[in-house]
Amino acid sequence: MSPLSVRLGSAATVLGLIVAGLGVGPSPASGHERDRGYSALIRRASYGVPHITARDFASLGFGIGYVQAEDNICVIAEKVVTANAERSRWFGAAGPGDANVRSDLFFRKAIDDGTVERLLDGRRDGVRSPSDDVRDQIRGFVAGYNHHLRRTGVPNLSDPACRGKPWVRPLTEMDIWRTSWASMVRAGSRALLDGIVAAAPPAGAGPAGAGDAAGAAAVVAARDGAGAGIGSNAYGLGARATTGGGMVLANPHFPWQGAERFYRMHLKVPGRYDVEGAALIGDPIVEIGHNRTLAWSHTVSTARRFVWHRLSLVPGDPTSYYVDGRPEKMRARTVTVQAGGTVAVSRTLYDTRFGPVVVVPGTFDWTPTTAYAITDVNAGNNRAFDGWLRMGQAKDVRQLKAVLDRYQFLPWVNVIAADSRGEAMYGDHSVVPRVTHALAAACIPASFQPLYAASGQAVLDGSRSDCALGADPDAAVPGILGPANLPVRFRDDYVTNSNDSHWLASPAAPLEGFPRILGNERTERSLRTRLGLDQIQQRLAGTDDLPGRGFTTGRLWHTVFGNRVYGAELVRDDLVALCRAQPTATASNGATVELAAACTALARWDLRVDLDSRGAHVFTEFALAGGIRFADTFDVADPVHTPRRLDTADPRVRTALADAVQRLAGIRLDAKLGDIHTDSRGERRIPIHGGRGEAGVFNVITNPLVPGVGYPKVVHGTSYVMAVELGPHGPAGRQILTYSQSTDPNSPWYADQTRLYSRKGWDTIKYTEAQIAADPNLRTYRVSQQRG
Prior knowledge:
By secondary structure, the protein is of the alpha+beta class. The protein contains 23 helices and 29 strands.
């Protein structure tokens, strides 16, 4: 590990911060909270954002559950259906290969195994099992949700998506713990669930049939551990990059529909917790946000969340394997789910001492001699709600680091933060399997070393007990890398991440020497990462189109939504010269395509993805077709600006442009982006700016092409955006939830922030009492319930 990796005080000082400054462990009030009723003050500000104040964490949870049910009850109810293995019962199935059936078989096994119940046993210190504060908050959340449902009634729900549906029911605390567990394993066993459900021992001499394991195959093929369909940008700006205090940009790129939408809220228990920000719908705690002196965001990490174990099978018995020369029998469990409520579907799933058996055809087959199992280190992660709660109580980035060290709870994300003292921090402080350099060298067979080097997927020798993950002495739990093995950087200028690895979080001080399972180092960065860094460097130098040098929250907002297309800045001119010189090309299907109109559209394009940008979609399709190919090579001494020159001699460049023109048949090549790039709210189409990360866009919007129509529906991209400055008078800045607060088409908050996003507007940070009181749309009410 680099000696520049971490700058911390003594272990005793860190522990003192946790105990004295953060109040870790059960609070004196927790035992009494169970005997009291619930009462929460709700102040709805502009755009429906709730500011919730309560006397204790149980009542705070009650308020959160109530308002989230008001705004998004159908989303929460469907999350519960999924985690309780009932998707195929309520939403139908076409047989064992159906995605709902596969999901249900995966979650039913976890339920039958009592997985979540075991995670709730143990000392309530927030590490071994959830604390009383968090349990109170979950209990209150369930009571608040149920209070709203009871008052409204399922037949009278406002949202037609679940009005009168039999799958909407009162919640239990176990429902929320199960949905939390489902989120923890998203990048591990849940990502591989197709391969878990498909795993079956071979019947003859060849490998077993794998059924539909396409999802698992995609995980294996991915270059790193970042989950598909999610991503993020984040900046942590220190005093040298601002007017003095720290500043944070949060820019997660998450789905615009479904269970992984964010929800804005401000939560307060006077004297104990006071945090504004956003959480995934159905979660009772702020996950991205700020308090008075500290702000933070998350980006999806490249680290892998699971390891493979190659099993040497006992001859003639493909469900037994050797460990240290002794045979062990796999544990077989037959699970059954109801498809459509009437058809029972059963599957026998197999477990080992390491975890479930998984098949991925062609890479991880189950043959008469070999099988593969995985260890998902997040399958035992019951620490997340406690970790986020204590994050919200930290006063600066050093205390934040102490929280991360103690709880090690972040399931699959980095953290980027800054504080009012002007110090910024980056860390991939997530839950990562303990694959050290030594373990990788000794226990990954030679045939799998290239896979580990290329993608960080470790395949360990399962026949040797000394190849188990082991325990770092400073780790919160066994089997994961401890804080000393994780990359962290403190800076007074800036840190950033855009879903590449830890290496270039600070170009002035790269993080190097860490285990490969965390991500690659000294390698080419994505166009989006490079643009993110270039934007900061230009702003600090004053060479962009904004006044002065350094960041204010206003300048930060304009930087994010400047909508530059970095790939086009590098190669557009050369591409135009190429297509003018050779105005026809052969597409991938062999057809000859005229390029003149595309060439003209690209030449006139403003190199942005603004609503009035003409021709941006031509470059988008060119980039998606693999057309950005460089003639020069990556230079580790200049990683932000290399490579940068289009390889005009590569015939695939012209082929990609021809393919783009073909795909855009029926759509004007010089159309304004806002005319064809939209999202719908009811009958209204709202123009959406932004574009694809593959083209080098920072403000990512993934909006698939509909042939002959355009891009009518956003799938994922910029979601919750926060630009917050931590000054002497408290936090201030801008924020927005791009797809709006509610999924209910009858809600007044169904489309308002989406229209605001379309015109690059914002809502203000509302943290102090003065900021809240100044909101012209403030509406106050109290929700309460006595315990019977």
